[in-house]
Amino acid sequence: MKTPAVLTLAAAITLNAAANVLMKVSAMRLEARAAAGAPVGVVGQYLEPVFLGGLVCFALALVAYRRSLQALPLNLAYPLMTSLGYLLVLGVSWLLLREVLSPRQLLGCGVILAGVWLVAG
Length: 121
Description:
121 residues
C-alpha cells in the first residue's frame, strides 16, 4: 500500500469519527437546552457551532476518503473506513461521553479487529 494514501485514509477515518462524535455532542446540547426550557428553533439547531463543526468534519472526511480512493482499492478502503471508524467512535464515546460498553460489544471489537487484520493483511 502507498503510504500517502494510507495516511489520507487514516485522516478520513478520524475526521468521520470526529464528525459523528460532534453530532452526538450537538444533540446532547440541544436536549439540555430544551430540558432547561430554552427555546430551540429549527434554524438555531443547525447554526449551533458544534453541529457546524461536525458538518465540516464530514465534508473534510469525504474529501480525504475520495482522495485515498485514487490509490487504494475500494475493497480495501471501504472495509477499513467503516470498521476502524466504528472502533474509533466506540472508544471515543466510552472515553469522552461516558457511554457504557458491554462485554458483548468488547468481544465484537475483537472480531472487528481480526477482520481488519484479515482484510488489510
